[in-house]
């Protein structure tokens, strides 16, 4: 049984170069329902999380300025978005969706956020189209509620960009293991230190990528012994992606998702999946690659 969080669409006017990537959040649910992968009843609109939940991860002064439109021009430029109340509401809702997915994954084994994966957000600032770090917040929520029975978390970040914000947030937290497999020469230019970083050369193809992943993930599970997994399944690893510089095919990307999710299922590890990035020139390439993630989850847990 799949549960899928949907954030509100961002209706505030955006620059033209930002509008295109946002289309996937509208088209992906339509595609999944139309083809019968999931029923409409699988989607839910999450409630806004409490401020206390957000402040488990984010600095109070930063969050207050974010809410009130008090970011400096330099800080706003770093996020890549023009500030608006609607933008903040959407980012808070995305975070709430990932937190809500935690409970559904604990019950059913898996839950997915149609957005999320805002891994460039730090405790006290936003970067790279990320204002609040949803997976970090959900991991801290889990650890802050011991009655949920989770004491060790693994974050598997397979977006093409390093999860620098997530790495920094958990740099001193041994209960959360951060694993980022990303393009070596890609954004961010100044990388943070994850617990395990695997930087990939430009042009890495399906064979090399999948072999490295299959040689790494079992060892991480054995050594860290997590109770819960967050998976960031960005599709900017595709050869068609204009920002990614890797060379995965859509089938290779699907096999990546299948391997991660099947491994979680085999180890009886609840997993929350967030979509992350995707910037191929054809919107169909982005939507199809993201849809494959949901198709794999539906096949495994449907």
UniProtKB/TrEMBL annotation:
The keyword Transferase does not apply. One of its GO terms (biological process) is epigenetic regulation of gene expression. CDD domains: HDAC_classIV (cd09993). InterPro entries: HDAC_classIV (IPR044150), HDACs (IPR000286), His_deacetylse_dom (IPR023801), His_deacetylse_dom_sf (IPR037138), Ureohydrolase_dom_sf (IPR023696). The keyword S-adenosyl-L-methionine does not apply. Residues 22-291 form the Histone deacetylase domain. Keywords: Hydrolase. SUPFAM superfamilies: Arginase/deacetylase. It holds the Pfam family Hist_deacetyl. GO terms for molecular function: histone deacetylase activity; hydrolase activity. Signal peptide: none annotated. Belongs to the histone deacetylase family. This is Histone deacetylase. It comes from Hymenobacter fodinae.
């Amino acid at each position: 049984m799949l549960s899928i969080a949907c954030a509100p669409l961002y209706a505030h006017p955006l620059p033209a170069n930002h509008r295109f990537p946002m289309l996937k959040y509208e088209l992906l649910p339509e595609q999944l329902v139309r083809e019968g992968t999931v029923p409409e009843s699988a989607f839910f609109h999450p409630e806004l999380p409490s401020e206390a939940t957000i402040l488990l991860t984010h600095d109070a002064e930063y969050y207050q300025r974010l809410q009130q439109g008090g970011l400096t021009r330099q800080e706003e430029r770093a996020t890549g978005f023009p500030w608006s109340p609607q933008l903040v509401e959407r980012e808070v809702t995305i975070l709430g969706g990932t937190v809500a997915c935690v409970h559904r994954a604990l019950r059913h084994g898996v839950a997915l956020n149609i957005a999320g994966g805002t891994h460039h957000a730090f405790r006290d600032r936003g970067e790279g189209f990320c204002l609040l770090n949803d997976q970090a917040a959900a991991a801290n929520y889990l650890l802050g509620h011991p009655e949920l029975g989770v004491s060790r978390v693994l974050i598997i970040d397979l977006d093409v960009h390093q999860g620098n914000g997530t790495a920094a947030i958990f740099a001193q937290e041994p209960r959360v293991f951060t694993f980022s497999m990303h393009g070596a020469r890609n954004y961010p230019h100044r990388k943070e230190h994850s617990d395990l970083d695997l930087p990939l050369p430009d042009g890495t193809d399906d064979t090399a990528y999948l072999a490295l992943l299959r040689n790494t993930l079992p060892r991480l599970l054995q050594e860290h012994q997590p109770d819960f997994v967050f998976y960031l399944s960005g599709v900017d690893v595709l050869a068609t992606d204009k920002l990614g510089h890797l060379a995965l095919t859509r089938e290779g990307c699907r096999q990546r998702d299948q391997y991660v999710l099947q491994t979680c299922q085999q180890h009886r590890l609840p997993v929350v999946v967030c979509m992350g990035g995707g910037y191929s020139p054809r919107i169909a390439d982005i939507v199809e690659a993201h849809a494959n993630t949901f198709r794999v989850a539906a096949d495994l847990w449907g």
